[in-house]
Amino acid sequence: MREPRLIRLHQHDAASLGDEAKAGLLQVPARVSPKFFYDALGSCLFDAITELDEYYPTRTEAAILAHHGAAIAAAARSRLGSGATLVDLGAGDGAKAARLFPLLQPARYLAVDISAAFLGAALQALQLRHPALEIIGVGLDFSARLALPEGLLDGPALVFYPGSSIGNFAPAEALRLLREARALASGGALLIGVDLLKPVAVLEAAYDDALGVTAAFNLNLLRHLNRLLGADFALRQWRHRAFFNVQRACIEMHLHAREALTVSWPGGRRDFAAGEAVHTEDSFKWARADFEALLREAGFARVHSWTDERDWFAVMLAEA
Asked: How confident is the model at residue 10 (pLDDT cuts 50, 70, 90)?
């Protein structure tokens, strides 16, 4: 049986992460990257969010891929032929991509994720289930730049970016990432999940559920910062808020101070007025035609789209 390879391009550096978090807290307004959601508890809470009635993206995308999988695979194979490389961005445990293996039949699976340690364990398990497949993991933070070492791709690739994660990028940054994905695909294609515009009540409920799981997920970021920075955030002094910003076409998530307070960490502090917020996440939503136009601006050619019955979510195959 093959053994998966693991290439570490991103090293977990607590000091640099801490510096990044402190710099964000000192901005006006304060802002912390959503990457700080994902400590061990945060990852579990996000998994719980995907099971909520209100949170439609995960199950809607999965239903599109299940219902239209054969058509998607046929369109991908007509572009790439057989035996292409499948590049999975933000791979996690690889489960989403693995469901496509029987349809796409890739010769090589290249999983890209910021957490190299988690990726290594996940790919060992995946290799047991797919012993003949060449599997390579790359530990990379592609939020800054998407580029792989030379020699990993020797022909056209299918770049897979599911989960509507592109929504975490503002339009200009999304365009940059899409251009880099096109260069990576090199004559192949991009398969991407896109969360579409829909009624505001539906959008806001997905990020502020009745059980309060998303609130716990957001507040856990402060717990993570306490551990990372040695800070003294008191979670009871903060409340979760999520709302749809119509002008920006995105959900914004914030944590609002319930009262005037001071947060301290070794070597620094930040005073917050009552009601002042820490901005923790943006999730941009797209009209289907507008995202297809963005793909063309990034250099992609023909775009195929599949949606659910309500037109809430789209899976798009864009030819590079």
From this structure: low
Cα–Cα distance between 231 and 266 in angstroms, integer?
A: 7
Give the pair of three-digit tokens for residue 47: 């998994």
Q: Do 164 and 74 share a structural domain?
A: yes
- Secondary structure of the chain as H, E, C letters: CCCCEEEECCCCCHHHHHHHHHHHHCCCCEECCHHHHCCHHHHHHHHHHCCCCCCCHHHHHHHHHHHHHHHHHHHHHHHHCCCCEEEEECCCCCHHHHCCHHHHCCCEEEEEECCHHHHHHHHHHHHHHCCCCEEEEEECCCCCCCCCCCCCCCCCEEEEECCCHHHHCCHHHHHHHHHHHHHHHCCCEEEEEEEECCCHHHHHHHCCCCCCHHHHHHHHHHHHHHHHHCCCCCHHHEEEEEEEECCCCEEEEEEEECCCEEEEECCEEEEECCCCEEEEEEEECECHHHHHHHHHHCCCCCEEEEECCCCCEEEEEEEC
Integer Cα distance of 92 and 121 in angstroms: 10
Q: Is 2 part of a structural domain of the chain? A: no
* pLDDT tops 70 at residue 6: yes
Query: Do 176 and 74 reside in the same domain of the chain?
Result: yes
Note the pLDDT tens digit of each residue in 27-46.
Answer: 999 999 998 998 889 988 99
Same domain? For 236 and 268 the reply is yes
Chain centroid to Cα 181, Å, comes to: 14
pLDDT-derived band at 16 (thresholds 50, 70, 90) equals: confident
Structure tokens at 146: 């998407």
Q: Indicate whether 177 and 96 sit together in one domain.
A: yes
Q: How far apart are CA 25 and CA 30, in angstroms?
A: 5
112-140: per-residue pLDDT in tens? Answer: 988 777 788 889 999 999 999 999 999 88
CA distance 61 to 64: 5
What is residue 100's predicted lDDT score, i.e. its pLDDT?
93
| Rounded average pLDDT over 240-253 | 98
